[in-house]
Amino acid sequence: MQTSLPVMKRPSSLTSRSTTFATELEVARAATELFAQQCIEATTVESIADQTGISLRTFYCYFPTQEQSVPHYWQVGTETCQ
Hints:
The protein has 82 residues and is mainly alpha-helical. It has one domain (19-81): Homeodomain-like (Arc Repressor Mutant, subunit A, Orthogonal Bundle), CATH 1.10.10.60. It has helices spanning 12-38, 45-52, 56-62, 69-81. 15% of the residues are buried.
C-alpha cells in the first residue's frame, strides 16, 4: 500500500511579500531614473506611477512621498548585495 505525501503549497502571504518587494523595487528604480533625468522637483508622483505602470493609489500604498521611494531603493539594494 502506497501513501502519497501531501502537496506543500507556498503560503499566500509569502507570495504577497514577494510581489510587494518587486513592486517597491520597480517604483524606486523608476523614481531614480526620473530624478536623474529631470531632477526631483520636476518629477511628479504621476510620472513615477506612469513609468512603473501602476495607479497613484498603488504608489501611495508603498510610499508616502516621492522622495521616500529612493532611499528605500538604495537600502534594499545594499542589503541585497551583502
